[in-house]
Amino acid sequence: MTGNAATHDDPSVDAPTRALIDAAHKCEPLPDISDYLPFTNLGAMWSSLAGRHGNRPWLGYYPCETDDESARWYTYAEFAALIERVAALLSTEFGIRRGGSVATLMINQPLTVATYFAAWRIGARVVPVNPAEGDDRVTYIVENSGATLLLAHVACRTDFSGLNAAIGREVKRAFVADGEGAVDASLKDWVDFNGVLETTTLPETPPPAPDLPSDVEALVVYTSGTTGQPKGVVLTQRQMLADAHAISAWHDIDEHTVMMNVLPIHHVNGTVVTLLTPAFAGASVVVNRRFRSGGFWQKLAEHDVAIVSVVPTLLQFLLESKEDFEPERIPNFRHFICGAGPLSVELARDFQDHFGLKIVHGYGLSETVCYSCFLPPELPWHEHNRWMYDHGFPSIGVPVATNEMAIHGGEGRPVADGERGEIVIRGHNIMKGYLRNPEANATAFAHGWFRSGDEGFKLRGEDGNDYYFITGRIKELIIRGGINISPFEIDEVLAAMPGVRVGLAVGFDNRYYGEEVGAYVQREPGGSITDEDVLSWCREKLPASKCPKVVVFGDDIPVTSTGKYQRGKLKHLFEAFAGTQFRG
Fold first, then answer.
1. If we measure between CA atoms, which residue out of 361, 353, 248 comes closest to residue 306?
2. 73-212 sits in which CATH class?
3. Is the pTM of this model over 0.85?
């Protein structure tokens, strides 16, 4: 069993593209990843964990947002039993089988985690959906993925009637309430997942996990593209195990390590780094319903946390919080893993200087499961800081062993050290492909590597390693707080507004979110719309995270020779707002 299975079961993938995808799954450092994985699939992983670590703590959960809250802990055995019950419920009540898909509109909580692992035990796919997505986008994801069950937490919507009307009746629906008040009337025809789960019984001896091949599909993650609807990234269980292997080995995560999860579980960073990886290593994890700076350092001290995975936005929030920080209370804390959004040299320096704690910067995409490279954690402080500060951008580090990286020019050929080009990746953690999207697959895998669409360069270190840097995006995505936003979705909303001749969404550098959303608007001749008019219009049409926070009016829009707008050349118009924190 070598490499990763290509999309041979996807009829939309033609033979030339299959050959390119197969080439992108090769990895010279670890030619056969199966030699390094102790489990053939995720069901076998949990069977092993329950047997070896049954009485050890696995997951602690903070459900509330008060400083005096305490965590509810599950042992490995208790959580394995919960996984079995959820798997039984998915199979019997909802007819989920191997190859099926479960769409989740959920918050961070143990049942969400158990549902993921239960679906994987069956051999089904999880389709995580960002709760901030509008009903039309949720509907597209559910239908495009072929999900036959939508599981939603009541906190994700105040009214589910829009989803009810949009999603086909062939999709079963279930809600999770957790006693959070009265259930909205729009959920009256939905199944109470908690209620049915409580009555689900298991035989005294649960059936063994099915003998699944490791290339069974596990996740379909929808990521915003620069055009059209989001693309479904298909990941297999082996690809996820490969990335968990790489992350745990790089950060020396083992059964004695405690990690903390503060990122949304619907994002691959939250799922892979601080859920799958600690389980893979037999470690423990503290899960928070959401990040809050209040009580953050206290939790690290109480649970002897060693590693937390964050995005740059959270570093800024911690830097500005007035929480007491006493480094002597966290003597075993090692570092922050940071990626999934633009990290500036300024923020990195301010944070590390203020707290004296190391940021291990890294890089990856949903298409590479999660992380593909990191700065080495063992670098001496002064050497670490040279890579973080001295080259204009914080280094994203050195490739992990389960993949290779390079910088390619336009024809798919490597460029010289220090020269900018496209970051490309190949290896065992490269996606199976985009779901039913032949054009995107042919483009992404051109030249036999996965093309990230990100611009960067590399430099050779004195230790002989290639250190990589990301300088921007060839694609026009806006990455706000680690979440990809397609500017074209916002363009369409702006273009539909009366009084707007041209409206462009512009991602601009922002200290709090890495990037924020701005709007460059050309009024209709004689028009008098104001910035507040534009902002109000967008608030009615878009989730808060996608709404422009600043409007700049003008008539000079740079274009290419073919007439394509060059929104990147408008970024400087928003420089004055780089240090402004916008709500929503």
1. 248
2. alpha beta
3. yes
